[in-house]
Design a protein that fits this description.
Blueprint (H helix, E strand, L loop, with lengths): L4 H10 L5 H15 L4 E6 L4 H9 L3 E2 L11 E6 L3
Antiparallel strand pairs: 1-3, 2-3
Length: about 80
Amino acid sequence: MAVSLSEMRDYLWQARGLGIGRRLLSELEERAAGHGAQAVRLETNRSLAEAISLYRSAGYVEVAPFNDEPYAHHWFEKQIRG
């Protein structure tokens, strides 16, 4: 049984507020550190207020643009290794 894009959006909408994004972000940081990264960089669109809030609350700081992504309005970085 195939799941349509609209059905997937419904599932994702129902999962909001369960901490899945924070867990994914934590896993990303752990894997990046495991590969020797000293920092994680993320960018996002200004319309994604929840993502911006998540990144800030997880310790990411806003930095100067580090790429030319045309749909990004905010760039973040977090040091993960001392």
